[in-house]
Amino acid sequence: MAKVQRIDELQTFEWVGIDKVGKKMKGEQQAKSSTLAKNELRRQGIQVKKIYKKRKSLFSGGKAITAQDISLFSRQLATMMESGVPMVQAFEIIESGQSNPRMAKMLNEVKTEIQSGSTLAESLGKHPVHFDELYCNLVNAGEKAGVLDELLDTIASYKERTEEIKGKIKKALFYPAAVLFVAIGVTILLLVKVVPEFQNMFTSFGADLPGLTLMVVDASKAMQKYWWMVLGGLIGGVWAFVYFKKRSLKFAHALDRLSLKIPIVGGILFNAAVARFSRTLSTTFAAGVPLVEGLDTVSGAVGNVVFRDAVLKIKEDVSTGHQLQLSMSQTGLFPHMVVQMASIGEESGNLDAMLAKVADYYEQEVSNAVDALSSLLEPIIMVLVGGLVGVMVVAMYLPIFKMASVF
């Protein structure tokens, strides 16, 4: 507890001063007090003219730590360890270069744990939200084998690849979701604000309205009267979806099974899960993690309940003496090529290399499919949105065209 307290006592001071040749300088200095900050600057040959505590902004807490932050940290630490920089000093350098206060604070806490005698794996394990079981297991294997720099480089490459695939899938799904959201918003706006104006105008004419126009007018009346039910239904539906996905294993299992059966998208999610399985198992096996223990870690990294259950079944079979390729084929889930590559890897003693090749192939497949999906969805979404808005516009102008033809 005392160590954490000492970290919290550090404050940031802004200063203005002159150096040994009289040049005006300014900057920031961390210290427990302004006096200690002045002493440190004086030791560096700077005569302090003004010094004051830096004010905290409304956003001083910093943004949330992302997977990209962890990936970048892994790459930086691997580079410094490979260059011979001591671990504590490497943490200090990386921490000082952080623009996110939350990330800097976490690195400071990890560094303090290391200084107290904990291993890197133990120190990182105290932050399970950002350093999962797979990450800590690989770091632990690297420390025991004396190849921590190589393992950190492998981890960095692994996280960069997985985040790249996740980013591509999210990007492909974000565009149609955003367009549909805008389309729904525009439709509601037309029904609530625009259609009533046309309705008042048509009422003053006293003419019979076409069927399409009547349908849109009825929809407008219903929206104006029950808009709160529609809004509540949308919000409640999203909340219920998120809630049951996190809390109900049956719902998550059914959702993952259903997602794999969706045309086009299901194929992308399937290939992504196969790629994660292959990449993760290859990485753990290459790091010297026993196969059974590695499969246990892989089960939590595949990102799909269906694949997780399959991997856990494979783990049970392998632990009783079955070959990996035989256990994979028994699940009926993995493609024939993946099973054969695993078989070749087991027979040749290059399982990690073979699985890495499988991961490369399926990651490329996912990348190509996502690019194709993006190109396919753009015209489809535009046609749907254009058709929706177009129907409403035509419905509103049909009575005008009808009256114009009479006159």
TrEMBL record:
The keyword Methyltransferase does not apply. It comes from the Bacteria. InterPro entries: GspF/PilC, T2SS_GspF/T4SS_PilC_CS, T2SS_GspF_dom, T2SS_GspF_sf. Coiled coil: none annotated. Keywords: Cell inner membrane, Cell membrane, Membrane, Transmembrane, Transmembrane helix, Transport. It is a multi-pass membrane protein. Residues 73-196, 277-399 form the Type II secretion system protein GspF domain. This is Type II secretion system F family protein.
